[in-house]
Design a protein that fits this description.
single chain, alpha+beta, Phosphorylase Kinase, domain 1, Transferase(Phosphotransferase), domain 1, 3 domains, 6-stranded antiparallel β-sheet, two-stranded antiparallel ribbon, 10 helices, 19% strand, globular, disordered C terminus
């Protein structure tokens, strides 16, 4: 694609390229009429498919006037280039902000509310975004964001979700599992917002891989690591909102993105239900100290087809009693027999580890097969605005004498970090 730096499009002087994607380029330009910097997105008219998609994006944005959707100032054709002009957002994108680390729950909630407002407006007008990701979230200031890049947007009534080449369109890290077999819906946008919320709170996406296909396959067959394991500041109520948005089945997610935002707001006001059992090192009469590790019991609501289950408060209390009694029992044994050996303490720790893992076991997840073998990664660099340039499980079993009993449970760990 031809470079336009230091050239002119109409009354705009091109200064430098901000981003380059598969079908377009974004440049920083100076508007000779207003004397302000702007961002110009351009597509060469010879690229028929891209040109038609670009025209659709302009038409879509012209119909969506919302305070959190990046507006179009004007569009036109200059020579062999079709362009649209947008405000230049100097503070950059959410992707650049997340490179510095995760957000607080309140910061994530503020951004979520604004994204949801823009996306709900688009959905209410029959438009799907299909490419929700940090590089498409522009930061006007600390309190105002824009949802940008509707280049992959489509009408909800359209019944296609793949290109003529048979490849899925989108960014694999944010693509809903059902897109391998079904057209995009508002629920697939909600799934992408769930991925975004997970990333804002933990600093990473739930699924990673070496290829677009390997990443997308994990969306289909693996469960995300509970976000509270990556960020202990995440409460049980907040975690439930994130995981509900990431349900594999579209019908199990929030019905609307606005409902997701409301649930998150309620979760922020809900007291943390995570129980932390912590004991100081047990000082035994003989002077030997046995350190008892701190354990965090994370109750998660169970649902049909899900591997998450809630730890009953009585079980949490039992664990606390066992924690307390274990060092006392060992201390009494040491008082009666001063020849206590280190392996005994190790065995006690192993016994507790076995108990703990048994309490957290759950049924294995059922894999859903994909009928698509190709995933096209949308490597567009978003709008490129800002100071910087853009873009299995294991089973544990326990057997009782005479009857075998075994459960298997796995967590998959995974690319837009």
């Amino acid at each position: 694609m031809q470079d336009l730096e230091e050239k002119r499009l109409s009354h705009y002087t091109i200064q430098r390229r901000l981003a380059r994607g598969g079908m377009s380029q974004v440049y920083l330009a100076f508007d000779e009429h207003t004397q302000h910097n702007v961002a110009i997105k351009v597509v060469h008219c010879s690229e028929d498919d891209y040109f038609l998609r670009f025209q659709r994006e302009i038409k879509t944005l012209s119909a969506l006037s919302h305070k959190h959707i990046l507006p179009i100032i004007e569009s036109g054709v200059h020579g062999s280039w079709h362009y649209c002009v947008m405000p230049y957002i100097e503070r950059g994108t959410l992707r650049e902000r997340l490179a510095k680390g995760p957000l607080t729950r309140e910061e994530a909630g503020s951004i979520l509310e604004q994204i949801a407002s823009a996306l709900q407006f688009a959905h209410d007008h029959g438009i799907l975004h299909r490419d929700i990701k940090p590089s498409n979230i522009l930061l006007k200031d600390e309190r105002h964001i824009y949802l940008a890049d509707f280049g992959l947007a489509k009408d909800i009534k359209e019944n296609t979700t793949i290109t003529q080449s048979g490849c899925l369109i989108g960014t694999p890290e944010y693509m809903a599992p059902e897109l391998a077999e079904e057209p995009a819906t508002t629920s697939s946008d909600i799934y992408a917002v769930g991925i975004l919320l997970y990333q804002m709170l933990t600093g990473r996406v739930p699924f990673k891989g070496s290829t677009p296909l390997s990443i997308y396959w994990k969306h289909i067959k693996e469960q995300p690591t509970p976000p509270s394991l990556l960020n202990p500041a995440i409460s049980h109520a907040v975690e439930e909102v994130v995981l509900h948005a990431l349900e594999k089945e579209p019908g199990r997610r929030f019905k609307t993105v606005q409902a997701m935002t409301q649930a998150y707001a309620r979760a922020l006001q809900t007291p943390d239900q995570i129980k932390v059992v912590q004991l100081q090192d047990a000082h035994i009469m003989s002077g030997i100290t046995l350190g008892v590790p701190t354990q965090r019991v994370i109750p998660v609501t169970a649902s049909a087809g899900s591997s998450r289950r809630r730890v009953h408060p009585a079980i949490a209390a039992l664990i606390a009693v066992l924690f307390f009694m274990l060092p006392l029992s060992l201390g009494f044994s040491m008082y009666k027999n001063t020849s206590l050996q280190a392996p005994m303490a190790q065995g006690a720790s192993a016994q507790f580890a076995s108990l703990n893992s048994t309490l957290h076991e759950g049924p294995p997840i059922q894999l859903r097969k994909s009928t698509s073998s190709n995933v096209q990664s949308n490597n567009q660099q978003g709008n490129g605005q800002g100071p910087g340039s853009q873009n299995n499980g294991n089973g544990k079993g326990s057997g009782n004498q005479g009857k075998g009993h075994k459960h298997g449970h796995g967590h998959g760990h995974g690319h837009d970090d």
